[in-house]
Design brief:
five-stranded mixed beta sheet; globular; 24 strands; alpha+beta; Jelly Rolls; five-stranded antiparallel beta sheet; disordered N terminus
């Protein structure tokens, strides 16, 4: 019986499990990540936390979780729900709880826990797929929505991958496309904040310094300020300029893709602001996207107002989410919760002394047999993609049962906009309307094997490029 803490080979196998996280597609909010950065929605949920934690993969705790409210008192050491006592002493369980609360509850709703060392942990609601869970048990529909959301956000490698989620939930704004996408302050595939976003200790004025830049909207209602993502036609010349400018002299920098950058890797930087209104010219990268960061010309000066616009027809700034996340990946649905929702070959729990016990065996198929996933038919090597996306090794220790083509094998029906899936049929023959469809920026964002992430419409660039 291998132990996840002591078996390197199993850890390496499970590192192949590439499940996503996302940046929030709902209202703007900030959430700190491991680097101290604030982002609109944290992702990068570590795969071990979802496969092997003392809550969802604890046979006693799992069904009890959904039978009681998501309230502090039900997870404290004195809780009347004895199956939940001590389980949040497991770091994996705390990571799992972070994503469960953010998916289930809405802004302003929280759950807190103080561990045996006296450290307080607080998790905040965000998407609001099941806000009633804060006061009562979770309905079956709520459990399914939250399950789909959690699985869409898992990231085997522990770094952030941005995506868009869509679904036919009756009230969650996080599943509705937004008109803008926020620039990510963290280097692609890392948890490291871009150096240029740190405070300047001493630096010469100008656009090329690697400090003192910001992404936050100084005017939250101004979508034309820096800090957003734009789209363009690869290879075409783009000119980005200023439509309105007041206050202190400002500079801006253009970066490729969705993440901020330092001067050496930028696409362009604005010209000297003491002359005419600053502009930046660049060739549209092959990703077809760019983002903008801004700063005062002099880091000691105050901030002015800077509104940007594309001066060429080859680009759109800012770009709406559907223009940034064009690759429909597939869909998640089913449930992580309830009786028989976890393979009997796994059982993780925390005893009264705070010791974590991880009983882990190889599982043929899914660790969660009632959780399903299907792939969009546009993948050119769907079987390889699904194996990389869901499973540790060729059908073993998967996060969900892969059903194949969403249209044919999962019998998914399309929503009215003919863009995302409205319902799908699971491996149990039941129809699930609680479906979350995921959209990627680039085909290889999650599966870093170019042989597996080929796509008919959007050619995959080399992995990690």
């Amino acid at each position: 019986m291998p132990d996840m803490n002591t078996t390197p080979s199993l850890g390496r196998l499970l590192a192949a499990l590439a499940l996503l996280g996302l940046t929030w597609t709902g209202e703007a909010r900030a959430e700190p990540d491991d680097s101290g950065s604030e982002i609109r929605w944290g992702n990068g949920g570590k795969k071990d936390a979802f496969l092997y934690n003392a809550l969802s993969t604890n046979h006693q705790a799992n069904p009890v979780m959904v039978s009681v409210p998501l309230k502090d008192e039900y997870y404290a050491s004195t809780t009347p729900a004895v199956e939940l006592r001590y389980q949040l002493e497991d770091p994996n369980a705390r990571e799992f709880m972070k994503y469960l609360v953010s998916c289930a509850l809405e802004k302003g709703q929280t759950l807190s826990y103080k561990d045996r060392l006296g450290e307080a942990h607080t998790w905040e609601g965000a998407i609001g797929l099941c806000p009633e869970w804060a006061k009562d048990k979770a309905s079956e529909s709520c459990q399914k929505w939250v399950s789909a959301c959690i699985l869409a956000r898992v990231n085997a490698y522990g770094y952030r991958v941005q995506l868009m989620m869509r679904g036919e939930h009756p009230s969650a704004p996080g599943l509705t496309p937004r008109p803008t996408v926020m620039t990510d302050p963290v280097l692609r595939y890392t948890r490291t904040r871009v150096e240029s976003l740190l405070r300047c200790n001493a630096a010469a004025p100008g656009a090329s310094r690697d400090c003192g830049y910001e992404l936050s909207q100084r005017e939250p209602q101004n979508p034309l300020a820096a800090g957003s993502v734009g789209s363009c036609k690869p290879g075409m010349d783009v000119e980005l300029g200023v439509s309105d400018w007041s206050g202190s002299n400002m500079v801006f920098r253009v970066c490729e893709g969705l993440s901020a950058c330092d001067s050496a890797s930028s696409l362009a930087e604005s010209e000297d602001p003491w002359g005419p209104a600053p502009t930046a010219r660049f060739s549209c990268p092959r990703t077809g996207t760019f983002n903008v960061m801004m700063a005062p010309y002099d880091p000691r000066a105050g901030w002015g107002e800077l509104k940007l616009k594309s001066l060429t027809s080859a680009a759109e700034y800012p770009a709406p989410e559907p223009e940034v996340f064009k690759t429909r990946e597939g869909a998640f649905f089913g449930t992580l919760f309830g009786p028989n929702a976890v393979s009997p070959k796994l059982n993780i729990y925390v005893d009264e002394g705070g010791n974590v016990h991880r009983s882990v065996n190889y599982v043929q198929g899914s660790v969660y047999p009632k959780m399903y996933a299907c792939n969009d038919p546009m993948w050119t090597n769907a079987e390889a993609y699904t194996t990389n996306r869901l499973c540790a090794l060729m059908g073993q220790n998967c996060m969900a049962q892969p059903l194949g083509d969403c249209a044919n094998f999962a019998k998914c029906s399309m929503a009215k906009d003919n863009d995302h899936y409205a319902s799908c049929v699971g491996g149990d023959g039941n129809t699930y309307p609680e479906v979350i469809t995921t959209f990627l920026h680039r085909p290889c964002d999650v599966v870093h094997d170019p042989q597996a992430c080929g796509h008919k419409y959007y050619p995959a660039p080399p992995a990690n490029k």
